[in-house]
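Archive transcription. Copying these from loose printouts into the bound notebook so they stop getting lost. Printout 1 of 2:
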Amino acid sequence: MRFNFFKRSKKVAVITGATGGLGKDLVKRLLNEQYRVIMVARNMKQLEQISLQFGKEVTGCLCDISHNNEIAYLCHDIRSRFGQINVLIHSAGTINPGSLDTQTDQMITEQIQVNLTGAILITKGLLPLMKRNSSIIFINSLGGLLPLKHSALYSASKFGLRGFALALSLELRPKRIYVSSIFPGAIETQMLHREMKCGGSILNFCSPPLSTEIVCDTVIKAIRQRKLEYFLPKWSGLQIKPLMMLPGLIRFIMPILEKKGRKGQKTWKNQQISSISK
């Protein structure tokens, strides 16, 4: 299949992880905002389905972000076919829960590559297409603020992504290219279900999992407002950021958070059972 190659538009958005639960909804939302969308994902079949659904308004770019050579080709391809992009949204992400001694070298490399290195390389590769008043949006995680036991690699990659975004914002602001990071808690997607089947963090349920709609709303808000960081739910940043100024307190507070998480997970599971039975 040949994907649609649309003409240059006043507003063009690139979304990585475009076929995931959040990514697909971001594509729809950006289309509603009158963007033309370049979808980046590694699933050819799903790219084809979405491309057929939305026609000339989208184009699909096949890329496995875990491979640097594919990122290099992706960036070259986009640069050669598009004169300018206005928004770059990093939605791709992966997690393999488990203690460090259970992680293979491949698991370690993949999480750091997809969550951090890949985002850096794509940003660098597409930056020449970004002009004044462009936006770069990183879908980070509260795991980029609060360390997650048995998800050390995920936390490391997300902590690193926050540092990269903060430093990059200082570098690009004189050019009026704006960098924003969004820090959601758990999002109600298949990724969350897969994570929990593999022993994901109980802290995912300290608050109810977010709908993709809420995250999409925040992405649009970030494009318009251009603030540096957004936290979902809003109170989470107010609680977690002061805590990280005194990281020694985490071991005392963690039992309280885990108790809250276990209670929230029980409610979540009951809701899943109730929705299936209807």
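Printout 2 of 2:
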Amino acid sequence: MSDTDFTRADVCAAAIADAFSQDGEIFASPMGLLPTLGVRLAKLTSNPDLVISDGESVFLGGTPPLGGKDVVEGWIPFRRVFDVVAYGKRHVMMGATQVDRHGNQNISAIGPFAQPKRQLLGSRGAPGNTVNNRTSYWVPKHSTRVFVEQVDIVSGVGPARAAAAGAGASRFNDIHRVVSNLGVFDLGGAGDTMRLVSVHPGVGVDEVVAATGFALEVPDDVPETRAPSYEELVIIREVLDPKGLRFKEVPAA
């Protein structure tokens, strides 16, 4: 294996790891397969101070492979998670059925609020996450159905809505990164709108723009998302995901 032998899934895992690299000693709370892989990669490389859990009820004393077991360091039943949410020492990465140019996220339902066409998870912890903690999003299939001009129902709150609601909602609102299978984004555009930060290797800017259902801010010079290092590839393939579960979300071909 060489340091040029990487897949799109490996690039996504490294991009997610980068989103957590500067957080220091906080509770990293990834939701889903690639976010979990990326957070654990960050803990083994750029940010060893991250506190991670099994996603259910315990803090882990090490960094197990996906689906693996490890030494339990502490106990955090779900009700205790809300204490951490309110305290703020947490960075959560959630999914997004829809996300709009203002960083609002929808995981509740598709269609009109009064009579939606499809019921989803419900808002769950998204409102509390986005007004109390740093929040990022992972989108495995970037399309105009996901990246929309305006979400049907606001589950996760973007900065404009948080500001309109007052200091209690805006003080800790921090939509940090959106990582998709095509690129990396932030809310550094005009008026805190979504901006293209980088495109993954093999992806063109035009491809990202065509797959986005709103006017995405595109800088004059868009860099390529960095490729994972040889060390990171070894960790991903031999330590964290030897079964290749990441390819269920981002196919290798």
